[in-house]
Amino acid sequence: MTDKLVWKVSLTGGEPTINPHFAQFVEFLSTKKSETFKVGVTTNGHTNKNTLELIGEYMHSCTISYHCENTDSTKKRILDNIVYLSKLMPDWALKINVMFHARHDYFEECKKVCEFLSDKGIKYIPRSIGEGVKSKTKNKLYAYDAHLYTAEQNKWFKNYWDLARGDKAEVGEPDVGHNIREQGRPCCGGRTFTIGHDDGTIEETNYASSTGFQNWYCFINLFWLHIEQQEKLIYHHQTCRANFNKTLSSIGTTDNTDRILKRVNGWLKSGKMPVITCPNSICNCGLCITKAKNRDDATKFLKEILPSVEPVYG
């Protein structure tokens, strides 16, 4: 399989750059870097020039998340580091997530940061933030929401993504009772979605109109793998943590990787593999992963990914 796939290793956290072995590990991974093995890092950007140069030299990609709750001096340093790193990496390799807090002054600050990045020609994505705030909506699908943005803030998001899609800038007033999660969002990695609608039409877009996929069939386990180093746990995905049987749980530990591999190899040899039914009310990171509402589509998608494997639905 290694001659057909591009393996991507992402160093994330917490904050990976403060790990005392970060430099040593990055240099080790660089010896493995090739067209089929790429290494990226997600950081808060509050680091020193030596680390930035290490990232610029060895990392295939870098994502920096900008948060407004930092001190003014920290935020200035982060922006300076972003500009510095943008000169060390190609445009496509550096991405900034501007994390939009619902608090008015933070939200306005994030808008200014987006303008600053635009002026510098640096790619960014305005991100809504989900922190498990109890939902105030009547829709039971959304048991937990992101920050509860105002109608005006929701309108700003919608205007931004209408422009990004090439739509007209002026839009109607958003529903005041709905939060940004119900209005949808882009992929946090900036990817383009291929979306099939109930009427049979297919759409290419950079904005998903909803992030509620509870009880849908999802193939997160075929595209991601997350190792929680400090807990010695392995998950299909860092944030969604979906597992089979509609549970949120690890798939094993770093001490029993042989057992995990044996299980997966058993599925491949038998030609039958279980399919995850999403247990989450909201899809955070992982929105771009192949998913389907009905079994016919899910079966078709699995055949495209693994032609010799039949799905097993729980």
TrEMBL record:
SUPFAM superfamilies: Radical SAM enzymes
Family annotation (Gene3D superfamilies): Aldolase class I (3.20.20.70)
Protein's recorded name: Radical SAM core domain-containing protein
